[in-house]
Amino acid sequence: MRIAQLLTLISCLFIGSAMAANPQIKIATNQGDIELELYQDKAPTSVKNFLSYVEKDGFKNTVFHRVIKGFMIQGGGFDIDYQRVATGAPIVNEAKNGLSNDRGTIAMARTAIPDSATRQFFINHKDNPNLNYGRSDGYAVFGKVTKGMDVVDKIANTRTSTNSKLPGMRDIPVEQVVITEISVLPVEEK
After folding, report:
1. Which are the contacts of 22, defined by CB distance < 8 A and separation ≥ 6?
2. Against a cut of 0.85, is the pTM above it?
3. pLDDT in 10s for each residue of the chain, 190 residues
4. Which structural domains are found in the chain, ordered by start?
5. Which of 11, 118, 131, 160 is in Cβ range 3.0-4.6 Å of 139 for a Cys bridge?
């Protein structure tokens, strides 16, 4: 009887630790908060890279600078004065991780070079299968919105235009969408 109880306890502890393995974050914006689970089990390099910026307050007072309704919202690369924010070294593209660019997922933004992602990220406003690995080199999904998809929708519906501070870029919100902070949420006891 004691062995069975001990095995049950060990199983519960193992399951609990496995469930708590993926970090939870909150993106605080001037439009509301977005909470996400980051899939460090599926995209360890992308999650580690993203969290390295979070730990240094690297996203504080940056903006969602590219917003396309029915596609995605992109941020993390420009401050509130539309100046590029310093980046670390680019990371390997983890798009071949089995995750899809579905509505509400967060992925690493990059240039046309697959292994060029640094700090910019985007949240998919709708399913975007054209961004998945297989049709091209893909864009690495590394998490999903768990709370605040209404905020993503609100941001995606923001009026956009061009901006003289970002020449050559379109789809810039007329009213700035500011990321005031990104923080790691404490692990909840279940």
Report:
1. 37, 38, 39, 40, 41, 143
2. yes
3. 455 454 454 555 554 444 558 999 999 999 999 999 999 999 999 999 999 999 999 999 999 999 999 999 999 999 999 999 999 999 999 999 999 999 999 999 999 999 999 999 999 999 999 999 997 899 999 999 999 999 999 999 999 999 888 888 999 999 999 999 999 999 875 4
4. 22-184 (2.40.100.10)
5. 131
